[in-house]
Amino acid sequence: MATPVKVYGPPMSTAVSRVLACLLEKDVNFQLIPVDMSKGEHKKPDYLKIQPFGQVPSFQDESISLFESRAICRYVLEKYANQGNKRLYSTNPLEKASIEQWVEAEGQSFNPPSSALVFQLAFAPRMKLKQDMGVIKQSEEKLNKVLDVYEQRLGESRFLAGDEFTLADLSHLPNTQYLVSVTDKGEMFTKRKNVGRWWSEISGRDSWKKVVDLQKPQPPKSA
Question: What is the value of pTM for the model shown?
Fold first, then answer.
């Protein structure tokens, strides 16, 4: 049996959860290694050897070390192409380009405002930090414009890159999960007919349900 890959970081992290969803879709055995960021473990020398920016996730597959969640996902999809969900990526140039353009749209257009909202609305209160209402307003305006584009696209196809669930859709799961389930901004997604239908379908996948379960507080181990 192959040695499990290692994923470093807390499953609550949106970037870590993106990688976990990809691994579960591809049926890749993994070991999740906690990194207590509140104690600064992500800034310690040993960790910086595998993630020089001191962020999560970091990833190891035997002698290979990687960081940045979307790059990790692409590596997993290429290396383990013949197992698990084979539709997540493609070797066909046109299909691959379609997937990549929507992954790029997620990273460049969707992620900045949605990440800002997740931090301000979900994490700042937990960290007892003051919310920046100006950032919230501006990010909501930007995200609404992005979702208008998505609404049109998803009226034309079942998923972002076509009629199959791919990395393009998977990449949107982490931030959207927080916005829909933890904040009062879920209506931004659910009020849009096509976006709401899409979110219901992708968030209902078994792989993502398992990630959400991993994010729940774990009961203390008995002695």
Answer: 0.93
